[in-house]
Amino acid sequence: WHLRRKKSIGGAAQTAAQYEDSVEDELEMATVRHRPEALELLEAQSKFTKKELQILYRGFKNECPSGVVNEETFKEIYSQFFPQGDSTTYAHFLFNAFDTDHNGAVSFEDFIKGLSILLRGTVQEKLNWAFNLYDINKDGYITKEEMLDIMKAIYDMMGKCTYPVLKEDAPRQHVETFFQKMDKNKDGVVTIDEFIESCQKDENIMRSMQLFENVI
């Protein structure tokens, strides 16, 4: 009887603790300005488990108590990872890629959907996401200028200590090489089909894309 009673008390305590955690999570979600979608829905829309989403949400809420992150906060957080360079411009482009509805804020849902593709998406999904990043004005094409803007931003972010002997025109040379390979019909722009086909066929480009994932 004593053993059963101890087990019963232990089980009740565990249930109470779980309930308390659940209530705490609900209260946390209710107190932020932007209430995220149910974790079950996000679990279905992403490649993360419910437990992973709970951990990610706590981290997101710690950095962004309001439930959404604006561009300035995003830049501040991102700069912590690249203290050796200037990540401001690249963070601006990255923010716009995460801000899929272009309302000037990245919600937890926006963050999770983007992160899910970058970490666990198929090659096709990752390349689609990368194309969207390079397509700065979102007109469905990548121009040489857009590619150069992104490339310069990456070089700035990595800093001189990473590329100490890099020539000033290195980003432009990099872009010229890539653009010649990608712009199949030589019309001055790269379509999403040209982009994906070039990346999948060229090992050098694909290797650069994997390096690019690490930068993200």
Give the SSE layout:
Elements lengths: L1 H30 L7 H7 L4 H14 L4 E3 H9 L8 H11 L6 E3 H13 L2 H12 L7 E2 H15 L11 H13 L6 E2 L1 H10 L1 H13 L1
Antiparallel strand pairs: 1-2, 3-4
Helix pairs in contact: 4-5, 5-7, 5-8, 7-10, 8-9, 10-11
Protein name: Kv channel-interacting protein 4
GO molecular function: calcium ion binding; potassium channel activity; potassium channel regulator activity
Subcellular location: Cell membrane; Cytoplasm; Peroxisome
Number of helices: 11
How many extended strands? Answer: 4
Indicate the radius of gyration in whole angstroms.
22 Å
The residue ranges in which pLDDT falls below 50 over 5 or more consecutive positions are 1-20
Average pLDDT number: 80
> Order of strands across the widest beta sheet?
1-2
Largest sheet geometry:
2 strands, antiparallel
Helix content class:
55-70%
Class inferred from helices and paired strands: mainly alpha
Could you characterize the architecture of this molecule?
With 216 residues, this protein is mainly alpha-helical. The protein is 68% helix and 5% strand. It has eleven helices and four strands. The protein is globular. The N terminus is likely disordered. Keywords: Calcium, Cell membrane, Cytoplasm, Ion channel, Ion transport, Membrane, Metal-binding, Peroxisome, Phosphoprotein, Potassium, Potassium channel, Potassium transport, Repeat, Transport, Voltage-gated channel.
The gist of it:
One of its GO terms (molecular function) is potassium channel regulator activity. This protein is mainly alpha-helical and 216 residues long. Helix content is 68%, strand content 5%.
